[in-house]
Amino acid sequence: MGAAASLVERAWRVRRGRDDLLVLTRAEVAEDEACLAAQRAAIRYCREHIYYGAPVRVSAVRSAAHHLPTALVSLDSARAAPGAAQDGPRGGAAAVAGYPEACVVSPAGDIVVARRGGAPGRRVIRAATLAAATDPPAPPVLRPAAGGGGGAALGVAWAAPGGADAAAVVDRYEVQHRGAAGGGGGGTSPVGWRALGAVEPQRGDAHEAWARGVAPGATVEFRARARNHRGWSQWSRAVTLRAAPAPPDAPGRPAAGNLRPDAVGLFWRAPRRDGGAPVTRYVLRARRTDPAGAWRVVYDGPRAARLVDGLAAGTRYEFSVSAANGAGASGPSPPALVRTPSAPRAADGDAGGSANAALLREGDHWREYWDAGRERVFYFHRATGERRDDAPPEFAAAADAQEREARFRARRRALRDAIRDVPERGAEPLRVRRDRLVADSLAALLRAPASALRRRLRVEFVGEAGVDAGGLARDWCLALSRALADPGAGLFARTARGELELVAAPAGAADAKRADAFRAVGRLVAAAVAAQLCLDLPLAAPVLDALRGVGDDGEGGADDAALAAALADVDAVDAPFARSLRWILGADLGADGGALGERYFTATAPGGAEVELRAGGARERVHDGNKRTYALLVARWRARGACAMELDALLRGAAEAGLAPGALAAFSGGEVRTLICGRGGGVDVDELRAHAQYTEDARTGFGHDHVVALWFWQAMADLGAAGVARVLAFATGSDRIPVDGFRPPLTLTHDAARTDALPVAHTCFNQIILSRASSYAAAARQLRCAVDNCASFELS
């Protein structure tokens, strides 16, 4: 307003008739023209960025304070009436009510925005502020919004970017959201970003946005950008929010499987909806159905199955189960009514009639498994323990999920046939000392003929009397692989995901001895795959891809697929470095790379030496035009290039023992990990039970439904993942299940001559001998004692 004030002071009036004449100098005329230009620009700003293109009226208001008129910009209510067509983002009565009452534009171009209905919060936008804003605004910084959303809503809030002047000219925010895959934040939804809404501060909108109707426990990402009269900002950094979980739905009605005079095996379905948090426990209640029967808790634990013992023969019981997660407990399931038989194998038991029979017929109780000994599939009912070779009719509807496993099974069978296409002649065992496990084993692997490693491995521990019929080799594979993975061995480093990447030697420190160590590791991997033995070597994705023959293609073209693959490899071994590369790809580095500082096409090798990513890289600065190529090359260097010598040696050793990269080309990275490490995610007790065999005893009636067998599987379920792994190691020498199961199968034998005695294991035959038990508690206690106090192999 300073320019206008000077004009008023210098102006003088001459009245001629009805007109007032203002006599100005040439300089004053030029000053007036500048004021009018600023006022016209401000009026245009009001129309486009305050009324958003809606129809407006512009009228002039004269005052004694200035010889130039003040402009009054207001909504043309007649043309913007409810239902009238308009270009703005809102329509109808809400549109009219949301616009400011008026904008007063001074002769100098300053804008005063008056809220409708006398609402407080008058805003002033200076002409100098409009002129100074030559670029789009900075992106807003999002934070969780406080309150106001309710339990089914997630919201973000933000402050206007920049200072007060920059905030004054921000006229709109656009907010987008997307769900995270699986609701757990472990990836983004394939649906992509979707518009959540527009926030218009000129109309009094709060700086917040809400996604409503969010499922309990769901994860939502938000991002936003700001606009001024110069354009849109970049998108903000995404903020991820997670809705509070809710209690789960009730589980399904319990189904009764094995029915005995004193016990019943119950199974139930997990809740259809878990409330956004994992179900951590089930509470099973039981009562007698006579008038004196009271509900009591018979199980409180994580499994959706329980053998309930201590029941009275010939008695009717009612069972109901509830589920709980971190947010609370569900209601009870529909009850199951069961009558125990009056005597073993009596026909007067009732597992629940037609309702229970219908539950047992549902297809997802059946599991399809591969019998490696007979080389065919079989079907196992997890509730009743029934096994059959032909597919049950009800299985067909639930069989689609098994198709991928069938294809994987066919590929791995062809792989083993190709690896083991050598004569089966006897071979000398690998002799190692336990106190020099790594050194002796690597030397033995390098000395052994390659053909011997493609047959069944035999191991001999010096100073121990055990004879290897399979158990010692399993024990050796796990013990050696864990020793190799130890950081003290200097061969592998554990990533943030718990996987193993190769440790690169410092520049100039690599030697033939180190290369031989990795060549022996490659031979070990190939020999274990050929012999169907498990290693505890969870190799990171770049190593698995190299074993599959999926290599980097040098510089190649930095197309989207190549760049995405390289960044995924880096994600697996160094997620912070991958995030920095993604920042570089999304930033505007400028034509000379000045926004990034002094960065060249080089990488830092172990030991600190600089290595060129391509010829002349030390002189080639990273800028906006070549950043994609830089990101591709440095990602490939971080994932594989830094340890190229070690990786080449490992691949050479694997190829010598029959596992050339082409042999694994048909497998995914996850499938290769399964071939090497066995089934991941813990041991599935149901799968163990499905494959188990029993030394039948007609005298005692021992079999899959004998109380000793039922108590064994109940104890296995109660041990938890770590305990089950110890039982496997006790019985087989390996604490994990090979991809095609144990050969020979896990076998349970009953020794009726002993009572409450410790189980005995024969690891070469994968056999456990169980004594009679006076109670379930005694059986569980003896099993736990045996597996916690066993070490070494002896002849018996």
Give an overview in words:
This protein has 796 residues and is α+β, with helices and mostly antiparallel strands. Helices cover 30% and strands 23% of the residues. It has 6 domains: 2-132, no CATH class; 142-242, Immunoglobulin-like (Sandwich); 264-358, Immunoglobulin-like (Sandwich), CATH 2.60.40.10; 430-549 and 646-677, Hect, E3 ligase catalytic domains (Hect, E3 ligase catalytic domain fold), CATH 3.90.1750; 560-639, 2-Layer Sandwich (Hect, E3 ligase catalytic domain); 679-796, 2-Layer Sandwich (Hect, E3 ligase catalytic fold), CATH 3.30.2410.10. Strands 3-4-5-6-7 form a 5-stranded antiparallel beta sheet. Strands 10, 11, 13, 14 and 15 form a 5-stranded antiparallel beta sheet that branches. Strands 18, 19, 21, 22 and 23 form a 5-stranded antiparallel beta sheet that branches. Strand 13 and strand 14 form a beta hairpin. The radius of gyration is 38 Å and the shape is flat.
| Class from helix and strand fractions | alpha+beta
CATH topology of the largest domain: Hect, E3 ligase catalytic domain fold
List segments where confidence is low: pLDDT < 50 over at least 5 consecutive residues: 1-18, 83-91, 181-190, 792-796
Q: How confident is the prediction overall: mean pLDDT?
A: 80
Strand order of the largest sheet: 3-4-5-6-7
